[in-house]
Design a protein that fits this description.
The complex is a heterodimer of chains A (101) and B (466).
Chain A (H helix, E strand, L loop, with lengths): L6 H10 L6 H18 L36 H5 L5 E2 L2 E2 L9
Antiparallel strand pairs in A: 1-2
Chain B lengths: L16 H9 L5 H19 L2 E4 L15 E5 L26 H8 L3 E6 L33 H8 L5 E6 L5 H7 L2 E4 L19 E6 L2 H11 L29 E4 L11 H13 L3 E4 L5 H19 L17 H13 L6 H24 L2 E5 L17 H5 L4 H5 L4 E8 L6 E7 L5 H14 L10
Parallel strand pairs in B: 2-3, 2-4, 7-8, 7-9
Antiparallel strand pairs in B: 1-3, 4-6, 5-6, 5-10, 9-11, 10-11
Classes of the chains: A mainly alpha (101), B alpha/beta (466).
Chain lengths: 101, 466
């Protein structure tokens, strides 16, 4: 299989995944993408007609619980904020994603 | 050294769990002395081998229980209150979880002491422990070689006698492959047998925590404590589990064993020893024959797609806002996996990659279903090769998948398996491993066969301690 992955596509994926990449990383990841895609291309050799996809295989089904407050798993505000780099007045500080212009 | 005599108090770190439990219960030694022996050993070897990222400096006492305050090493992707939890990634450098994993709670309730946190491939992405953001771990059996991964730190902790027993996690080979390369026992339970709550999620449809131990008996003992339903993990099995240690010391005569993958290319190093192991199982009365299974190369592809897809979703939460550092701190391997997964799930590509992979996954499940109509267990090599030299993982972006090839078919199907040492090369002191796989929820069978094999051979370097 020839190279089908362009740097432009990899750059687009990096943006979607919110992964900052240097130019050097962009080149090396593009190359690694190609290597990996060539290996996984063999799946087209398997006949999957009539086969239902298996998202997991041990036969367990969704398990529901009552929608009640579970004190055992509740953090205090202090605990919840304890690992954040930036907080303000009991809140997490997040990067701005909406702009006026 | 194949056999190390338990002679002086300084050797207390070399005890098996079973022996240590007995000596402490009978007040021959104290748990504090055993913890101190492990701490001393860590201080002796950790500078060179880089096994522990954090550890106790002095003995502590746990609650009453069958584990008698004995020291347990834990992979650093498992949340603990007593130590930072980093998953060996700079994204989580210095992170102190405000809660702990259910398996840690269970181990502590049974009287266990968390000795320290062991190195792994960052986020458990790999099979070498070389992709850790905090430096590679070396194989204690031969430090020119890798310990395997991703639970390389936990396997190396057991092999170096810096702990009594350890906890690892496996998605596809991450317990069994490093156990094979380090010459220790590693048990990967059925997916859903052991709670994933409080473990840095990697591939949520396959992640399985399990014991890494000196003997099969020790592994069964710790699994009895770790296993069981957890309301905090919706995929944990609500059914009661059997007492796994009841499967020790049982005959395997008349039981049926299928031998897989011996005809594959690239297995030259390990093939003769798997044939030798088959002969031993036959001598123990089992009926052993070669069996045909779907080519594991297809499982590599299924796993690569499904795992990357799940990684891209699971690692989306690491934004550096609520805890940890921002996404520029991901290492190369994590970046590659997140991005490949993002690609495999994109509109226009999801059918080609993700959906096809899950269909082939179903084919593997059907294949195993057929095989288990004929056989009680399936055996193969745990890894195609001996532990590779340091630096080997940098050679290919698919290094891990190739090292784990023989584990991936059963892993994507959630099946339980165990690695037991099957050969030690006297020249290099490196080990090979035998992988024993059973149907879902039949850990009892892998323990029964692993224990029978271990006791019929001399490859386990701790057995004579009993």
């Amino acid at each position: 299989m020839s190279a089908t992955i362009s740097k432009k596509l990899v750059d687009e994926i990096a943006h979607l995944a919110n992964i900052p990449l240097s130019d050097k990383e962009l080149s090396s990841i593009t190359k690694a993408f190609d290597e990996t895609l060539q290996v996984i291309d063999n799946l087209s050799e398997i006949d999957t007609t009539g086969i239902e996809p298996a998202h997991h295989t041990t036969g367990l089904e969704n398990i529901m619980r009552e929608d009640v407050v579970d004190n055992e798993r509740m953090f205090s505000q202090e605990e919840a904020l304890s690992q954040a780099k930036k907080t303000n007045g009991g809140y997490f500080v997040v990067p701005r994603i909406l702009h006026n212009d | 050294m194949l056999y190390q005599e338990f002679s002086t108090m300084t050797d207390l770190n070399k005890l098996t769990l079973k022996k240590a439990q007995k000596l402490v219960a009978e007040k021959e030694v104290t748990a504090a002395e055993i913890q101190q022996a492990c701490i001393d050993k860590i201080k002796e070897v950790n500078g060179k081998l880089n096994i522990f990222l954090s550890h106790l400096d002095a003995p502590v006492t746990a609650s009453e229980g069958s584990l008698h305050s004995l020291p347990i090493a834990v992979k650093d992707n498992v949340c603990t209150l007593d130590f930072p939890t980093t998953a060996s990634s700079k994204v989580l450098e210095g992170y102190r979880p405000p809660y702990e994993a259910s398996i840690i709670r269970k181990v502590k309730e049974a009287g266990g002491v968390i000795l320290g946190k062991t190195n792994l491939d960052a986020w458990a992405h790999g099979s070498s422990t070389e992709t850790s953001d905090f430096g590679r771990t070396l194989n204690p059996r031969n430090p020119d070689h890798l310990p395997g991964g991703s639970s390389g730190g936990s396997a190396a902790a057991v092999a170096s006698d810096t702990c009594i027993i350890a906890i690892g996690t496996e998605t596809a080979g991450s317990i069994r492959q490093p156990s094979a390369w380090c010459g220790v026992v590693g048990l990967k339970p059925t997916y859903g047998r052991v709670s994933r709550y409080g473990i840095a999620a990697m591939a949520s449809s396959t992640d399985s925590p399990g014991p890494i131990a000196k003997t099969v008996e020790d592994a069964a003992t710790l699994l009895d404590i770790m296993a069981g339903h957890d309301p905090f993990d919706a995929t944990s099995n609500p059914a009661e589990h059997p007492v796994f240690s009841n499967s020790l010391n049982k005959k395997i005569s008349g039981m049926k064993v299928g031998v897989l993958y011996q005809d594959l290319e690239g297995l030259e190093e390990v093939r003769p020893y798997i044939d030798a192991a088959s002969k031993i199982l036959e001598d123990l009365g089992a009926e052993v024959e070669y069996a045909q299974a779907l080519d594991p190369h297809y499982a590599i592809s299924v796993y690569t797609i499904a795992q990357r897809a799940e990684v891209s979703s699971n690692l989306a939460r690491y934004t550096g806002i609520r805890y940890g550092n921002d996404r520029s701190h991901f290492g190369d391997e994590a970046k590659r996996r997140i991005m490949l997964g993002t690609h495999a799930l994109r509109k226009g590509y999801a059918d080609k990659y993700y959906l096809t992979a899950q269909k082939v996954r179903a084919k593997f499940a059907l294949d195993f279903e057929e095989l288990f109509k004929k056989y009680d267990v399936l055996i193969s090599a745990s890894s195609p090769t001996f532990a590779q030299k340091i630096g080997a993982s940098e050679s290919s972006s698919m290094f891990g998948e190739l090292a784990d090839m023989l584990q991936e078919p059963s892993s994507i199907c959630g099946l339980p398996g165990i690695n037991v040492p099957v050969f030690r090369d006297p020249e290099t002191n490196l080990f090979l491993g035998l992988n024993i796989v059973a149907p879902a929820w039949r850990e009892d069978l892998v323990i029964q066969f692993g224990d029978a094999y271990e006791k019929a051979t001399s490859w386990n370097s701790w057995r004579n301690n009993d």
